[in-house]
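Comment thread on ticket #2218

A.B. wrote:
> Attaching the input chain for the structure job we discussed in standup.
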Amino acid sequence: MTVFHRNETRQPLPEPLKGGVIAIGNFDGVHRGHQAVLARALDEARARGVPALVLTFEPHPRTVFRPDMPVFRITPAPLKARILESMGFSAVIEYPFDRTFSDMTASAFIETVLLDWLHAAHIVTGFDFHFGKGREGGPAFLMSAGAEGGFGVTLVDAFRDENAAVISSSHVRAELATGDVAGAAGMLGYRYTVESEVIHGKALGRTLGYPTANMRLAPEVALKNGIYAVRFRMADGTLYNGVASFGRRPTVDSDGEALLETFVFDYSGDLYGQICAVSFFGHLRDEMKFDGLDALVVQMKQDDAEARALMAGVRPLSEIDRRLCF
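C.D. wrote:
> Ran it. Output below, let me know if you need it in another format.
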C-alpha cells in the first residue's frame, strides 16, 4: 500500500490510483463507526473495479487550531495506515492540514483536491462531513458538486452499537481515560494499541526479577495510569504476552515521567532501540504506592499471575484485531 505524506501530496498522483473511490475523514481510532464508512468505500471500489483510497488529514485539525491542547490520538498516522492497509485500501493520503489549507473554500477543495489531483470517481464519507473554510461545505454541497463534477457520493449514517449507542472517537478516548480498555476495544473492534521505541530505564525491575521494556508515549496520551494485561509485538512481528504498568512508579519514582513498562513473559533478550507495539487486553488494577519494595514484589507476582490467566483465553475480536494482536 502507498502512503502519501506532506511533500508527496504536491506531486501528481500515480496513474494507477486515479479515478478511484475515496473515503474521506480523520478516522482517528478507525473504530467500528469509521469501519462502516470504510467498508462502503471498499464495496463501491470492488463493484467499479477501481482502487480504494483514504483521504485523511495530518496533523489532526484540532491540534492545528489548539496547539496548546494537542489531541490524544488513538491511532497515530503510522498505525492508522497499517490498519487501513489491512482492510484492503490501495493508498492512504495524509493530506497536510495547516492554517492555509483551512482557509481553502469548499469549491476549491473539490476542484483542486478531489477532481484535479485525485480524479475521484466516487466519494464515501460520514453523513455529517463538513469541509472548506468555516465548514461551509456540507453533505448537500458535496452531492451537488458531485452531480456537476461527475463523481458519485455516498453518505453513511452514524453507526450504532448493539445498545443503539453512537460510537465516536471521543467516546473511545473517554473509555481509555478511565482504564476501561475492554470497553474501548468493544467500540474499536480491536484492542487499543500503542507503538514506541524501547528505551533504557533505571533497571530497577531487573533487580526485582521483573525486567521491563520501557516505552515513552506521547504526552497527550490520556490512558489511565495502572496495570494492564497486554500483548507485546516486537519489531520482527513476534508476539509475547505480558503485564504492563503505565504511570509514574509512585513507590520508587513518583516525580519521574510517565512510562509504559512491560514485563514480557518468557523472554530475556535485548529490545533496546526497537520500535515495538503493546496491545491492551484488560485493566488489572490502578497504580498504587506500596510500603517498600518487598510489598511491591508481592503485588507484582499477583499481577503476573492474573495477566497470564486473562491472556490465556483471549480471542480475536475482528480481522483487524487478528492482524494486530494474534
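A.B. wrote:
> Thanks. Noting for the ticket: The mean pLDDT is 91.
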